[in-house]
Every structure is written in C-alpha cells, then in structure tokens.
C-alpha cells in the first residue's frame, strides 16, 4: 500500500464562511466573506506551496540536487516553508532575515534544521536580499529567489486558484490577498481571470509608515519580478493598527487564529464588501497567529 507523505498534506486547505465579523452589513447586502485557511498547511502558511514547488521544479531542471546548499532571503513564512521542504528533500538551507522579526519564526526555522543569518533591522528585507545575492555570487549556494522565480506564482495558478473556483462552485466574485512577495495574488489572479474575467482581484498594501509582517510596498528597484500589475484590479491600504486590531477580533469573534497580514486582508475584504452587493468575497488567511505571540499583538 502506498501511504501519503508530508508533501501530500500541502494544499487543499479549507474555505470557511465568516459568521460574526461584518455579519449584519454583509447580510443586508447579500454578500458572503470566505476565509481560505492556509495556516492548515503542514509548516503553517500559504508559503508551503511555492517552497516545495520551487525545489521540485529546480530538481526537475537539474539546477539542484539533494545535498546542495540553498539560500533565501525571507521575512519569515517562506523561510519556514523552505526549511521544511529542504528537510523533506535533503538540502542544507541557509536563511537570511532582518533581526527584528518574531522569535517564533526564527525558532521554527531552526527546528527544521535551517541555518539563520540575521541582517540589521535598518536595512529591512532589501539588505537581506542583497546579501543572499552576494552569497550566491561568492559560490556559497543557490538562491531560489521567491521574488523572481516563476515557480512561485505557478503553483498558485495550478493549485490555489483551482481550489477556490471549486470550493465556491465558480461563484467567487472578489479575491483579496495581502501583497508581499506577490506570488499568491499573481498566480491566483491568472487562473481566476481565465475562468471569469469579471472576478475582481484586490491587493492589501500597508499604509505609509505601517510595518505589517507579510505585507510590503517595495521600492521600485526591489519590486518582485514575478509581480504583474495587470493581475491586480485594485489596491487598498491598511494601517498597522487596523490589521493588529482585526487579528485580535478574528481570533475572539470567529475562532480563526491568523497572522497580522491575514487580518489586514480581512480588513480589506470588509472594505470591498461595503462597496458591492451579492458578492462572494474570498480572502487568504496566509498563516497562523501563534508565530506572532512574542510581538505583543495578542493579549499576554
């Protein structure tokens, strides 16, 4: 008998309806807001999908082989997912991340056997990406580069988008996603637009001065190469305060313990719901809230 492996547990995550947040207004407008629970993936986030995809496809092309060293700059979730995927596939994983990111993320990466290099907070993710490129140029390993690797959005085109279409019976009218690496929103948009060009794709971006883990507004020179501006119909800006408050509400009122960027996506979905009627609005709960406990966002 052929038993499934941990790889087979990635994807096919639940889609659930909100029951309380925005309920009265949604009911009056005939709208439903649905949450895609990507925290149910084995390493706890939507990034499990592209992490395994990037390694698998690189192996298929002969770019890497088990035993090689992989390098990646990460703000957390991709690093955790890659650490898991590297453990599954037999790679040495070196992850580079800014020093101010949550301790739970760093501990989880190490638990999977990854090696961490911390860069100064002042340099942000840009410095981490620069160091990863330098290490690859110096022959210290292979950068998978989630920001430019087409295997990132490709897996969302192949899996996440079809799952949403099937789970809503083709009724989805709006897709809302936090925008960081942009792989999720780019790949899902491509699939949904092929199925129904009228589906609206909405990206959640941080307002000026806000620092929301998992949501980024990149300087032009660091804009992910995988990002297709035509894939996103509308950008809505969310403050750090609104995202953090919504994270607490999501846990207390819906029993959904999601991360701060997931909460930012829900806040954005509520703004969309106030503008439309008879809509099926899906947002991505991209990770779990337990990796943010040390940040003070949730009550101690």
Automatic annotation (TrEMBL):
Residues 6-287 form the Tryptophan synthase beta chain-like PALP domain. Its EC number is 2.5.1.47. One of its GO terms (biological process) is cysteine biosynthetic process from serine. It is an enzyme of class 2 (transferase). It catalyses: O-acetyl-L-serine + hydrogen sulfide = L-cysteine + acetate. One of its GO terms (molecular function) is cysteine synthase activity. Its cofactor is pyridoxal 5'-phosphate. Pathway: Amino-acid biosynthesis; L-cysteine biosynthesis; L-cysteine from L-serine: step 2/2. Pyridoxal 5'-phosphate binds at residues 77, 180-184, 261. The modification N6-(pyridoxal phosphate)lysine is found at residue 47. It comes from the Bacteria. The keyword Amino-acid biosynthesis applies. It holds the Pfam family PALP. Keywords: Amino-acid biosynthesis, Cysteine biosynthesis, Pyridoxal phosphate, Transferase. Belongs to the cysteine synthase/cystathionine beta-synthase family. This is Cysteine synthase. It comes from Hydrogenophaga crocea. The gene is cysM.
